[in-house]
Amino acid sequence: MSGEGFDWHGFLGRWQDEWVPRADEEEDDEGGEEARFVRGRAGAAEAVIVAAEERLGLRLPESYREFLAVSDGWHVDQTAGVYQLGGAAEIDWFRDPYDQSSAYEEHLGDDPRAEDVLLAGMWRRALRLETDSDISHALLDPGDVGRDGEWALYLYRGWSGEQPDRYPSFRAYMEAMYRGFHRDRAERADFVNATTRAQDARVEDARRLALRGRYEEAVSLLEEAASYGRPGSAVLLNQLQHMGAPRSPRAYGDLVADPRYQPELLPAEAVTQGRDGRRDGDDQWLRMMVARGVDRETAEAVLHAVRNGTHVYAPTGPWGRAVAEAREAARWGLTDDAWRILRGALPSWEAPGPSLIAPVGLLADTVLGPLVTPERGREIRATPRAGESGPAPEPVPDLDPPGLAWLAERAANRQQPWDGYRAVWIEGADPAGLPALIGEEGAGLSAPTDPRTASWGAPGPHEREGVELWEDRPVVALGRTAEGWAFAVDVSSHRRLTGLFRSPAAAASAAGRAVVVWREPTSHSADRPTAFHLSVAEQGEELWAFTVRGTKAERSGAIPDALDPARLFRPEDTEQEREARVLTTLHAELGLSLPRFALTQGRLPTFTTRSWTREPREGEGFSYAYVTTGPHRT
Fold first, then answer.
1. What's 401-467 look like in SS3?
2. Considering the entire predicted model, what is its pTM?
3. Quick check: 461 pLDDT over 60?
4. Nearest to 103 by CA among 93, 94, 116, 114
């Protein structure tokens, strides 16, 4: 960023004219009104600048030369850092008095980045500009030169323990300090000038643009206004950024206590704390909310609901009715249907006040929040809403592939050691009725939870009173497929098929035709190929079944030709190819599917089933092993 064409007279004059003390700063009684507005000095003559260059042994960059010609030094007045920039006769080489170069060179490693090499060498070759500071330095680096010939400026705050901030030029540094000057005074009610009025107008323009779906233009305006510390800019910008990065933490300031915005913003802040799962930080988070004006009991209730999977986003009006309808669809795994409902209703979303421009409360809903991917978040931002008009964005494609073949792809690509799964489908059944059909005694539905971890978090037989060690009672997630089958699935099963296996298909078929699939986790052993089981039942009776391990198949009943294991499990194919073929055929022949998004990224209710293994008969044995961990002792 060159200084060429930049109006240093106008820029510095505006800065000087706008100067007032910070809200926490007292006036200089000794200097009076005249000293209050003298931030710079008269410009240096060309001969003075040339003399400085001859003393230093090189020509200064243009933006800094032009600055010196207008003001031979400047009172920057940072809150903490550099206070005074010296004139041409006062600047000198830094010479690395603290041997920072050695410290930075030690951490370069064998393959350092170019920017790290530049920074390590900067300390010995930099030009020091400041003459008054709080253990801070403004350093121009002649070894870090841009295409425009400008030297990078590094602002090093020695008390911070952090790496210096880099600016591409002296002009860029001064413009940043001017914005900081405004931020430091933004809370003063009497700090009103042409700059503040122009930035406030940009905030209002950005609000209207955001509601018209022109979010990129809005973000640009808000980023500039926020850099000046203008009221309202940061909270509007945070909403747009939050929708674009739905899992990132955001802060909404004192608006979390405003009754108009609290239902949207307080849960949106709580979800990060709840997702973290570390309760040792809860008290600090709650104190922060109370300091902002939130009732502690309210904050505790919201955090508890977010963490325990019971928080429900419940806006009013047409948007609220669509949210409730979408939640009912997503609750059973129909996430693409749920998103289409939300998409159609987005234009009806209404802002409860001028400080809200997006439905960020949606992100905290236990069931609907996971549906908002970054791509869908951009679709929300690009949708006109709250009574504003504009072109509708291109819809984001559905995320769930049809059928079951994605299970084979997932198993091939996963890094986790357990890639097995087992599932029950019941044709035409109500998912809510599955615990009564195949659940253990007293089984009920949990709050929506992550299906991938539900089974792993369940206690083992040795930890449950009244449960025998031979029993295998998985925790399964349940829902409904697009084709109308109810399903219950353990999507990350770590158990293996044994001779005691008892298919739950017969019990499940009391409510309609039932299908059971069980794929063992990959064994990675030539002596024990991975097993695949399929069984079908109707009206309480198993019709047919097979279990294939490698090239050997155990079969019973009249298996349809299309599902004959001899056709599906070809010896010349890999295990993944065989698995993909049988899953594709199950979708084609029986209409079976599972919602990938709900099972891998969403939240579904769960319950514990009856045992999938039977009691050993006389002469039969079984083995059961478990591992416990605890403090290491020596």
1. CCCCCHHHHHHHHCCCCCCEEEEEEEECCCHHHHHHHHECCCCCCCCCECHHHHCCCCCCHHHCCCC
2. 0.86
3. yes
4. 116
